[in-house]
Structures are given as C-alpha cells and as structure tokens.
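Now for one record:
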Amino acid sequence: MAPKPWHSLPEYQALRALMQGGTTTAAAERLSLSQSAVSRSITSLEARTGQILFERSAGRLRPTAEAVRLNRRLDPLFEALDRIDGPKVPVQETLRIIAPPTYAHRFLVSHITSFLSVNPHFFVSLEVNTSDEVIRGILDDRFDLGLTGVELSRDGLKLQPYRTSSAVCAMTTDHPLAQKKVIHPEDLNDLPLIALTYRHARRTQLDKILSQARSTPRIVAEVSTSFAAVDLAKEGLGLTVVNPFPIYHYRSSDLSFVPFASPIEYRSYFTTSAQRPLPRVARAFIRHLRLHTAPDPFSRKG
C-alpha cells in the first residue's frame, strides 16, 4: 500500500515532542494531550511514511536514524511557524509622542508613568517641542501621537477633541484680584501683566479685548509658553491670562485661578495622522488619558 500523499501537523508535533521528551508522558505534557493521543500520532506517522521511527529501550523510546532525518527536514517548517506566531516573548511596542512644554512637563510625565505601570509591555518615547513641530512631526511620520492646543486644519492630519476650557487669570494668592469671583478686562488696567508672545493667536485676541475695554495693563514680560507665564506669576511678577488646562492640575496649590470674562476659549486635541492606522499603543494611551484626567473647575471634556 502506497504512503498517503498528505501531511499531518499533529503527527510532526508529536514526533518532535517525543524526541525532546524521550517518553510519551513528557511528550503529552508538552503538547497538552493524552499519552494515547501521542502514541496514535506516532503510529499513524510510521504507517504513513512506512518507516520505524522509535524503538523501545530500557523504558524509553529512542528515535531511529529515520526519525532523526525526518525531524531535521521538519526544522524549516517549525521555524516558519514560529515566525508566523511571533516570538515567544511579547514585542515591546513603542509609542512615539510629541507635545508642547505646557502639556509635556509634569502633566504628561505623570500620566506616562501611570500608563507604563499598568502596561509594562509598552515603551514611550516623548519629544517636547512647539505646536508647529507637533504638526510637522505627525505629518512626517516621526510620531504616532501629538497633543496640541492649536486648531489647524491640514491635509493628512486628524484632530480628536480632548479638553475645552475658558481663559483664566493666574496670580499669587495675595494678589489684589485673587479673591474676585470673575475678573473683567477693565480690572487689568495699569496692573503688571505677563503676556504670551505674538506667535500665539490668543495674544492678539487678548489685546483686542483689552483695547475694546479701554484697559491698558503694564506688560512686564513676554514668554513663549503658558508654563513659563504661570511660573513667573508664581514668583509675584504679575498676573497672566492663560489656558488653565492642564496647568491648574499642578499649580492649583501655589496660585489663585480666577475666570477671565472674555470670549477666549481654548481647545486641546489629540493629533494623529489621517493617512495611517493609529497604533494599538496610541489608542491605549488616548483611552488612558481620557479615563484618568482629573476633573477641574475650568475645563471639560472636548
């Protein structure tokens, strides 16, 4: 009777397991099968190949030369199966994230720490840069995920709303305006003000609001980030009008934050590519941030 022209993976697995374990008991444990199932696979393989593959000696099954040759020919097959299944150790996926200093310093750092503590199989690479570079980095595929407060429509870019907030005045707790429930533009007249530079669209908007209210504060410093503006306010240099998110989260115990009566509104976005699928690790981090961003009096979910 001619050998059957088909192949049986379970038979080949039984062969390799038996050669490695030396007994049907050990082979059965490796394969999570019964001993009788292993024995049937070996018997079937011998019948199909027309060869004796094992000989019993001193209570053990010893492979014959035919079994050794067959096992060697099976090496490429099992190597290919290993490549298909992937490595035995989980691959450490990397999240490439970019954000401006206001988001990155302290706020993102603490969330990255908590994210990795519950997802040790992930790895995070964090770049701190300007909002303009966030946009370029995503479009150039140098990063998977960005955070930005700049609402910019660009081909190939996707913005997912994260938080929305209204402007506040930040100042020391002993500032003359610190106890007010709401600060109006005219309240800032002749007071020292720490302003953002004109590269921020909100600076032009603030100037227009102050001009309409005939309010002329004294600009004592101009800075490029809300992070720096609030830190200067903390030193007592003056007050500043900023986006409270996420600064309130790590400065609420140091400063007074009072709503600023104006139409100024800020939006924070997750920035991703519209051309490429979002990696699993990026989706997981977005979920983590949405779930674990603490509530505050000045911002709400986007």
User: Anything to note?
Assistant: The chain is about 40% helix and 25% strand. The chain has three domains: 9-85, 93-162+268-301, 168-263.
